[in-house]
Amino acid sequence: MGNDDPSRKENVDDQYPVHTAHQVSNDSWFQVGILISMGINSAYALGYSGTIMVPLGWIGGIVGLILSTMVSLYASILTAKLHEVGGKRHIRYRDLAGYLYGRTAYLVVWALQYASLFLINIGYIIMAGSALKAFYLLFSDDHQLKLPHFIAIAGFTCVLFAIATPHLSALRVWLGVSSLCLLLYLCIAFVLSLEDGMKAPARDYSIPGSEVSKIFATIGAVGNVVFAFNTGMIPEIQATVRPPVIENMLKALFFQFTVGVVPLHAVTYIGYWAYGSSTSSYLLNNVHGPVWLKGVAHMSAFIQSIITLHIFASPTYEFLDTTYGIKGSALAPRNIAFRVVVRGGYLVLTTFLSTLLPFLGDFMSLTGAISTFPLTFVLPNHMYLVARKNKLSSLQKSWHWLNCVFFSCISAAAFVAALKLIVVKTETYHFFADI
Description:
Blueprint: H1 12-15, H2 29-40, H3 48-81, E1 84-85, E2 88-89, H4 93-101, H5 103-139, H6 147-164, H7 172-199, H8 211-227, H9 234-238, H10 245-256, H11 262-275, H12 291-323, H13 333-356, H14 360-387, H15 394-428
Antiparallel strand pairs: 1-2
Helix pairs in contact: 2-10, 3-8, 3-10, 3-11, 3-14, 4-5, 5-6, 5-12, 5-13, 5-14, 6-12, 6-13, 7-11, 7-12, 8-14, 8-15, 14-15
């Protein structure tokens, strides 16, 4: 466990290479607040009506989302306050864990973060494929092309984008495009769902399935609830904030979890209100309206998913670039070949898994159970307990221990439920089924 004497701490990065350059702390709290708010309002937000509200219902869904918002804010504040421990800054989650617990924790957190990024990337490719299929069906109803075809097309597009965009600084122009796409699909989904809901007859809001399936679906939905606020990268984000770092990061977090969550909550509730238990895991599959407007929404979701996937894949790309000594001009033949082979190979594997098991809601649950619960809820409470143990009262220590145990149990239950649902669906899934 941790030791409060900085002189007795070893620098974990001396044993494990640092693969991310130290970033300059010059971003305002408002910039960071906007950035992290965009993260929680990504195209995934189009799925929460179906993956959270349908299995939980009105009371469970609303209470779950609100509680998750509050608990995520609390856990994020704990992590942000640990930016400086033992007289040094910790700009990576794994560095902080390594400082408090040692080498093993460094490696475990490193693995959890990259596993989380990998699973999130799988979800983005499924989302992009779903959006592309929905766009295709606006103009053709022959159903010759199935969802796996569109996932493959989305994966190929991701490969081209990864090759053409060598590093994050080259992504700046695309961030504006991503922001525009986000506003388009959220606004269109909200307005068209509102119109449909006002015109539609009474909807069925009962939770579908047998008693046993309801239990698994409910537990799996809990994983989706926490996935919506995946904040396991707080130290990395905080590294870019200008001084005073902790105070400005707290401002950004309060912005994210107040103003920033409004679009997510709004589109989630309005979608479920409009379509009830028949709400899809991709809300735009339910809406009615002008073909051109729905086409804009689908393509916006597709483009935004491709861009956001690249952001989440960038740490992996950077790790691979550093490991294999990729330097110099991005247009150098060796560097282009490396991106084609290595990044292409990574995305081919990601696309293959996305095509093999295109169950978006269940992958969200699985990601929540495997990485979001530990990184966002369990570790912040325990790290704060270790780092501040001499300054906490017995009641405060008991509170943090209770949180650790509670969220660990829910994480295990969500993992089992998500795995069960995936196995059940896999048993009846045909690769090119009509999905």
